[in-house]
Amino acid sequence: MQPSLEKLRKIFRLEHENNYGNTAIIGGLEKVLDFWESEAQADQLDQEIIDLVSQQLRNYAPLEPASRAQALKDLWRRITETSPGSGRRPEPPPAAVPVSAGDSAPTRPAVAVAARTGHEVAAARTPPRPLAEAAPGGKTSDTPAALNAPLTVLQGVGRKHAARLEGLGMRTLGDLLYFFPRRYEDYSKLKPIKSLWYGEQVTVVGMIESVTSRPIRRGAATIVEALLGDGTGMLRLSWFNQPWMANRLHGGMQVSVSGKIEQYLGRLVMNQPDWEPVEMEHLHTNRIVPIYALTAGITQKWLRGIVNEVVTYWAPAVVDTLPEATRTAAGLMPLGRALLQAHFPDSDADLKQARERLAFDEIFFMQMGLLEHRREWKKTEAQRFRVADDWLLTRVTKLAFRLTEAQQVATAEIRADLDSGQAMNRLLQGDVGSGKTVVAALAAGILASGGAQSAVMAPTGILAEQHFKSFTSLLIDGEGGVRPGRIRLLTGDTASAEKEEIRSGLASGEIKIVIGTHAVIEDPVKFANLQLVVIDEQHRFGVEQRAELRGKGHTPHLLVMTATPIPRSLALTIYGDLDLSVIDEMPEGRLAVATHLLTPQERERAYALVRGQVREGSQAFIIYPLIEESEKLENLPAAVDDYERLAAEIFPDLRLGLLHGRMRAEEKDATMLKFREREYDILVSTTVIEVGVDVPNATVMVVEGADRFGLAQLHQLRGRVGRGSQQSYCLLIPSHGAAAENERLQAMVETTDGFVLAERDLQQRGPGEFLGTRQAGYATGLRMASLTDAALIEKARLHARNLFAEDAGLQKAEHRLLAQALRRFWSGGGDVS
Questions:
Q1: I need a labelling partner for 527 at 20 to 30 A (CA). Which of 435, 629, 745, 796 fits?
Q2: How many Å apart are CA 559 and CA 456, to the nearest integer?
């Protein structure tokens, strides 16, 4: 027997057990047609049978129980006579054995399984008793275990549909409950036909005047057309390649249709509209309609119906883990109602409140976890380090420039951390060229003066070398500074004999500061007394790498640095467990980089500026979008391809170097070193030069395909020039002329303040530009919250801090369920840094 007929057999048998009360399917047997017709067509059932089933089930509800029994018996008899192999039965077949959703699961809802006992159905028709909303002692159980049941327990969800839904991230009933719409269509404002306009998305209620079906494309397809009237006018409805619509609609039927108003031969039409008889519950029309993400084989209407059944039954049963006092203080909707309204809102106001509640939970849980991490870190004792003001003054006076006020504040904060007796856990955030390295070097110097060791890890060898030179020039002297040889550089390029010497010096404690790449965390490296870990460009390192380096000491102080300006809302959310120091001033005398936006037709102007700057002894970068492998994006120029053209045709008299992501690490470092040593006039590169490279002699940055980059990334690229005393330039060339008017790129011309650009980038492109390995997991775990919503973040942070101050360990009875929810939210979490 075909699966669609087997499913029908089970439904008919269940209806028989329920004494033909039209209860085998929630909403009545007619609801089965929402999915059964397509399954029957897939099973290649005779169209006559499909039409017969559709007709009988649509006329089933008005019948008396005795007439319903006879109708189903007659229908099944016709099916068995027409469909070979279906088997002849005088009445609907026996019920199948119910499918268990798990030993601990409560009674399944009517949506769960088509085949079950009469007792189950009677219980399922009674909605679950809503759990108490008062938090203190009001909740005595967790969210029902049945929400862990697979989606195949749902009527109409077989293995194929379940596999497709899994591709959308849904495996269980609970997953489906939290599978929120990606957008909504507001069909709640009905309009008369006479008032319709072309291009509107509307709902219209009227009566079917006529229905016709005709072949098109020489019989290769079919079009069903219906004429809808509402007393004010007529609207033509069309369905392509859905011949069964001719049988489902008939003259005199009152229907509600929703869709986009289009025009054909001067008349208004609505193609492929959603529709429902007006006496049905308006799930798809005449309301604010949820629109879900789809995949092949899943239709919007089918998925919406499945979600509605689950949400309607299970949302009231979900336990609200947010304490009642917090929920009331924050003015939030109860969780069960929020889940229901997030899927099927009654109004725009209800939808807004529902989304706020669900988003608040996500940010609140994140903040609570970060506060707990921070508390645990603060309880960790660490060695204290103190230096006299004279020592610091000696170091600072060696600099060729004065520390900015922001640098002085950051240095004072770090000094206080190191002298607190608690392990420092601080993020040092500063714009490109703001002087973070100097502050980090002073911190390492404080520890060296106390006889302890520091390790500095940078993402690239050339950046590590730059730090090595900066640390050495600042710290090595005979006046209380670090003695020569006690600051060493350790990278993959370090000679084997020298590596062994450095490892020996670290193990004995002779070497006080080691600066390097991932080589500093390799197994042979051991420290005698590692007390400070500095991670530069921290988003370039994974959790495991940071933890491994920190694990080489005993509760060492931790300083992580980033040159990417991070908006305050994002910093509070992602780095809530770290103390934050911000360097938002540039050193005195630093000239702002002059930024210009050119059209592709003005590219020769950029080349002319490059030639002029090189003639004056400067150097230039020409940057291309990062293109994976050999693929191109919409014919954008690629660095490798254009390098040949630039060298042969544009700058044949100049020395060009090539740098891209497919080169080995040692090749990249060698190329960058040659450029810094002025062996190349122009470096043609992808974005691998984005972070940390310091070439003071470079004065021109040309960015091709600039519209392909975020503002944060463009700002980082621009920061590669302007690091010397000469005026520098950044020329942005978008991929097409229209993009030159792009408001986002104009912002680069208007300001060089990285924090202003970061705020704009966060609003326009989301948090992805700022998130690295550690933070990405947090962002992807947010289904409703937006990290651009500063007001909500501040609100959730305030209430999290208040609750944490009241009961940091969540030991009170009314906080038990919140503690469980937090453990689930943070399961799989990693290093706090």
A1: 435
A2: 9
